[in-house]
Amino acid sequence: MHPDAELLRALVTNTTQIYILIDNLEYNTEREHLIIPEYGRHLQKMVNYAKGLPTKEERNKVAKAIISVMGNLQPHLRDVPDFQHKLWDQLFIMSDFELDAESPYPMPSKEELSERPEPLKYPQNHPKYRFYGNNIKTMIDVANTWEDGELKEALVYTIANHMKKCFLNWNKDTVEDEVIFEHLYELSGGNINLKGNDEDLSDASSLLRNKKKFSNKKSHHKKNSNRNRKRY
């Protein structure tokens, strides 16, 4: 046979094999949807295989083998409480709750899984002085419930000093105590009145001193960590 003919036959054969391989290619967009993608497609095929077994004894045997493989794929969860329970729940979820196998735990329901949690209750109040935060308003409400005395007076001045600190964090300039007293009077509904008192609040520099010390410590720690870092 002529050499060119042999080369042509080999080329045709290889081209035919390439076309066969291309026809057998599977794209992820054409494949079955993975319910829990973390376990991969092969484990999903194992679950589908277990669903199609004729006897319950065979399904139980394969289901236990699948649970063992799932546990090996998630070694970091072995110390989590109810680890086996979670694996069995995931197995039934991957089978779309169609696997008829005996489980040592109650089988989860599809309705329970699709049930939406109740929305969290967030504070919906919109305070006039937002820079104080909601905690200050809560503290003021608590102070209103206390009886007059030394403890309430100490709490009120602690709240006022904290309000002054919050104000200075929001506005770097100095603030007069009368402004804080006026805000406290307004936020307490007129129940806490420090306007006529002679006692002053803490000085602005002392309130912000702790913040500066903390920031200096952080910057000093960063410098030391950069200094001790190995250079390659």
Summarize the structure in words:
Among the domains are: 37-110, no CATH class; 130-209, no CATH class. The protein has 9 helices and no strands. It has helices spanning 3-23, 40-51, 56-73, 83-94, 110-114, 134-145, 150-170, 177-187, 204-228. 12% of the residues are buried.
Task: Show the helix and strand layout.
Layout lengths: L2 H21 L16 H12 L4 H18 L9 H12 L15 H5 L19 H12 L4 H21 L6 H11 L16 H25 L4
Helix pairs in contact: 2-3, 3-4, 6-7
List key phrases describing it.
mainly alpha, 232 residues, single chain
Order of helices and strands: HHHHHHHHH
Mean pLDDT: 78
Helix % is: 55-70%
User: By helix and strand content, what is the structural category?
Assistant: mainly alpha
Continuous helix count: 9
Task: Give the uncertain stretches in residue-range form.
Answer: none
Total beta strands: 0
State Rg: 35 Å
Give the terminus-to-terminus CA distance: 65 Å
Q: State which percent range the strand residues make up.
A: under 5%
The best one-word shape is elongated
